[in-house]
């Protein structure tokens, strides 16, 4: 007989919990794909949302003898 509302609700909670487990996980893979800006001198990669200021800071700190545009040619635009 069985199959009351309590049992159905419990089953629904368990199903939803399993769905949430599948959706969660590490963002490492998507973060690697977002690393699209690259310093041409040392080949260090930066996430695509990196600002021009951060690129300039990197160039001045790591490559003081090189021009900013040598490190990051995309900033010339």
TrEMBL record:
Domain At2g23090-like zinc-binding: 38-75
The protein, known as: Small EDRK-rich factor-like N-terminal domain-containing protein
Biased composition (Basic and acidic residues): 11-21
Region (Disordered): 1-30
Domain Small EDRK-rich factor-like N-terminal: 3-35
InterPro entries xrefs: At2g23090-like, At2g23090-like_Znf, SERF-like_N, ZNF706/At2g23090_sf
Source superkingdom: Eukaryota
Provenance organism: Liquidambar formosana (Formosan gum)
């Amino acid at each position: 007989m069985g199959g009351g509302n309590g049992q159905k609700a419990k089953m629904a909670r368990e199903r939803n919990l399993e769905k949430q487990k599948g959706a969660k996980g590490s963002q490492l893979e998507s973060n690697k794909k977002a690393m699209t800006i690259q310093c041409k001198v040392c080949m260090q990669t930066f996430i695509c949302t990196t600002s021009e200021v951060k690129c300039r800071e990197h160039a001045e700190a790591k490559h003081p003898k090189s021009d900013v545009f040598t490190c990051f040619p995309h900033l010339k635009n």
